[in-house]
Write a structure and sequence with these properties.
2 copies of one chain form a homodimer. In chain A, helix 1 runs antiparallel to helix 11, helix 8 packs parallel to helix 9 and helix 9 packs across helix 10. The first copy, chain A, has a domain of 279 residues: TIM Barrel (Alpha-Beta Barrel). In chain A, the strands form 3 sheets. In chain A, strands 1-2-3-4-5-6-7-8 form an 8-stranded parallel barrel, surrounded by 9 helices. Chain A is of the alpha/beta class and 526 residues long. Chain A is built from 17 helices and 14 strands. Chain A is globular. Chains A and B meet through helix 1, helix 4, helix 8, helix 9 and helix 10 of A and helix 4, helix 8, helix 9, helix 10 and strand 9 of B. Strand 9 of chain A pairs antiparallel with strand 11 of chain B, so a sheet runs across the interface.
Chain lengths: 526, 526
């Protein structure tokens, strides 16, 4: 059995205050995690959360994962109910995933005070549910909730939970530090005692740590050093309270510090890109000081060591930043260097290798824009338009030019809130004035632009706005700060993301909308 | 010898990108650290940094520390210079602190490539400088820079550095993981090997960890478990790259998890206050998800477990939040039940326990609003207004009523983007029409409302928008989706957060702005 890298960003990570993934978000995060090479993606709780049921349904046709298997998460059967009659268990099977994670009470106090059932019935619930799901052909992981707290007060019951789950056919029994109160030495002690007491080999165990002592990563590493081969974590450590173990740091530590290869070849260097893209989707500002993945993770205040660093950078970095896709300089994003811009352009089919001057121009424009709050990490379409605007033979056609627009939002005396936008544009030599209403100012502006363009570009009818995200930068300045808007547009079987930045949310949205239409129309005409 | 809690926020912590303490800031931080009960405060590098020289000068008369001793930080003498002739060493004595920390090269590669001197001269520099300062009556700590990296490549030289420093009279030899690349098991292994090799007891050693593997806290704990009694860290883990060991988490783990008392009685519960106050001074937004000290460190998305949490909160918290001066926060979320609303209301000083009908009305309104996309998890002020509107004797006064508003955003032919808002309101019987411009539509609306209200409520001038967040819900519906706005307002030494939800971002913002002013004015009149 090799190591199992198990991600629970979409389930436990989403417990973080403020995260609210849509189904489209979840599909996008799953694709990114797969690119990072994780082995398992816990997608949610089908049956209990309607959005998660929908995620698993769409995942069947819309996800083409290369590395990861999807896992549905749920609970053992209800007390006093036959497993075959439990609709929650049924919903787990209906998710049609190859593997299922079952949460089970592993702390006697929780069995008695929260679940309010007997110790024996709790074991029966575990046994019945595992056996039922295994009989249906599923791989089953059992998450022992509050395992460490429980084991430290009553090791015999904790051991019974482990033996029951494994005897019933569970592939791995996952020891969860649900309240996050453990230290590494305590994790080691519990695993050592448990394996001695039960004879269960540590390779049948898994580990799931919360970060309430700021030791989640270290606790996970300690468990792996004790022989555990299945470890759970979340992207950027997202999760309830201080969060879960940051899967990026865990994986990097195992590969780079302990020499244990846990990801497929070529995946570790995706870390920074995947980390930042998931932060964008979660609409959480990336933590610049995050270990390995943060923009400042390898940033040095020059001063005393500047010249020494230049001579021998590895004396001042614990690892080569490139192995996790990071860079030693302080970057607004990972895109700002020539090398990464060249790489990214090539990925989009635009070869800048033989054109150093163009590459310099593009790099300078990206740097300038990033200094103003732009970010192309999650906006490939805007980035492609930017690069192509510097390549005369590939420059995208401008579908129109703007003369002016006006957007009005009124809260009227009768309480009605109405939005109306008027655009004045030139399309193929013709001056067009178009007005439309919308749910809000940006929607009205989008509608008005479409009204103005559709006669000349009927293919616009096939484009739809799929997502719209707003982030305020430099939040300490309140509504006067800069606004960054990401627009995701879908059409003709694909989707693309564009970005706009401005003091004014409407103008920022306008930039992103114009890029979205320009890119989409250009594609449609290729 | 008891444990030495050694803070280096003012020296190593200030290396964090963005931190720039003034002398007054440094004095204030020192007072706070002293209230937290640390034993040593490393104040800076006198001689090398003029601000730090000034800090030590003023500290002599302006600081009245109860628990902490001040430490001046500097380097061993220059190569080839007599210690008595080294002005940098002289400046350390001139700082007139009872203790001095000396940084010394402990990795042979750094001696040769960065310092460019011989291994023997480096040892002589350590010996001479320590002996000189001890002869002048100072307690001396030696920080062995890059100690772990050096020891793992050449243990004999690392051992020689340790023996040289201690033989010359250093009180403690501090082992520094300067590049932050260690894991706990590696820290343990090096300390075990070092003490065996040299016969030096671990109680003569100190530990200083950086967080590049996300293990700085765990590494520090591992060193203490190996017998080390002097540990360094910074407030909130501030420091270069991913930062230093968070001294708050280290101390809490030692006291609460390992039962080692390291702070004076009554100090641990100052943690949250001191942590947040230092963040304010550093002008860094407190990390809500920080272990122990974060606002969300004990925040539970109630729902399913609310009733169990009410019965037995310690089953769901790894420690009692009060011991570190924190609170258990219940997040009112999607799955809000009566129990969590009652709990949350009690937290806000509103007792609904004896008023089941009111509790039902509030619960129903919250459920209804949450179904429509509202979320009160981060908007305590809006939640309080909602509950109080159901309590006749506590109902907040409405500062005005709205007749209508209108917001216009124009992108003009000359490229200028302008926002203008007009509000028509009734204030204390008077009809007021007010117009203002702003950076964007919401800013213009906020300005217009303030213009209209300020004559009646001059205290409004003291309120400022501290943060503004926008989230689009149900992203798959694009700009037609619901928009949720969170507004954070600051005034009169506190801040509060309000929420608004609507299809239209302007109307959503309006709701949040009105709640913010209503709450703030109500507080101002209490």
């Amino acid at each position: 059995m090799t190591y199992q890298v198990y991600d629970t960003t979409l389930r436990d990570g989403a417990q973080r205050e403020g995260i609210s993934f849509s189904v489209v978000d979840k599909l996008a995060v799953a694709r990114l995690l797969d690119e990072f090479g994780v082995g398992f993606i816990e997608g949610g709780w089908p049956g209990a959360v309607p959005k998660d049921t929908e995620f698993f349904r769409r995942a069947r046709t819309e996800l083409n994962l290369r590395h990861a298997l999807l896992v549905a998460f749920g609970a053992t059967r209800k007390a006093g109910v036959a497993v075959a009659d439990d609709p929650q268990v049924r919903a787990l099977l209906d998710a049609e995933t190859p593997a299922i994670a079952l949460v089970a009470k592993a702390d006697l106090r929780h069995v008695e005070r929260a679940l309010r059932t007997t110790p024996a019935e709790n074991l029966a619930m575990i046994r019945d549910t595992v056996a039922h799901l295994v009989a249906e052909g599923r791989r089953v992981f059992v998450d022992g909730e509050h395992f460490f707290d429980g084991y430290r007060t009553d090791p015999a019951y904790g051991a019974a939970v482990v033996e029951t789950a494994l005897d019933a056919g569970a592939e791995v029994m996952v020891l969860c530090d649900t309240n996050g109160g453990m230290l590494p030495s305590q994790v080691t002690a519990v695993i050592t005692d448990l394996t001695a007491r039960t004879g269960v080999g540590p390779e049948r165990l898994g580990i799931h740590c919360q970060n309430d002592t700021a030791c989640a990563v270290a606790n996970t590493i300690a468990a792996v050093e004790a022989g555990v081969r299945h470890f759970q974590g979340t992207a950027n450590g997202y999760g309830e309270r201080p969060g879960n173990a940051d899967l990026f740091a865990v994986v990097a530590n195992l590969q780079l510090k302990l020499g244990i290869p846990v990801l497929p070849e070529g995946c570790l260097e995706q870390m920074v890109r995947v980390s930042h893209a998931i932060a964008e989707i979660a609409n959480i500002a990336p933590d610049t000081h995050q270990a390995y993945a943060g923009a400042a993770a390898f940033a040095h205040k020059a001063g005393l060591h500047a010249s020494a660093i230049k001579v021998d950078p590895l004396l001042y970095n614990h690892v080569d930043p490139a192995v996790v896709g990071n860079d030693m300089r302080i970057l607004v994003t990972e895109m700002a260097g020539r090398a990464s811009i060249e790489l990214k352009s090539r990925e989009l089919g635009l070869d800048l290798a033989g054109r150093p001057e163009t590459l310099s121009r593009v790099t300078n424009r990206v740097k300038e824009l990033e200094a103003g709050g732009w970010s192309f990490e999650a906006a490939d379409a805007s980035f492609e338009l930017l690069v192509r605007s510097e390549l005369p033979e590939r420059a995208p056609a401008k579908p129109f030019t703007l003369e002016s627009y006006r957007v009005i939002v009124e809260h009227r005396e009768d309480g009605a809130v109405v939005s109306e936008a008027t655009v004045k544009i030139r399309v193929r030599g013709e001056r067009v004035i178009a007005t439309a209403e919308g749910n809000g100012p940006v929607n009205a502006l989008d509608e008005a632009l479409r009204v103005g363009l559709t006669r000349h570009y009927p293919e616009l009818r096939g484009f739809g706005l799929a997502d719209y995200k707003v982030r305020i930068l430099e939040g300490s300045q309140g509504t006067g700060a800069v606004t960054r808007v990401l627009v995701e547009t879908a059409g003709a079987g694909r989707d693309w993301t564009t970005v706009g930045v401005h003091h004014n949310v409407v103008e920022a949205s306008w930039h992103a909308l114009v890029d979205a239409l320009t890119y989409g129309l250009d594609r449609a005409h290729v």
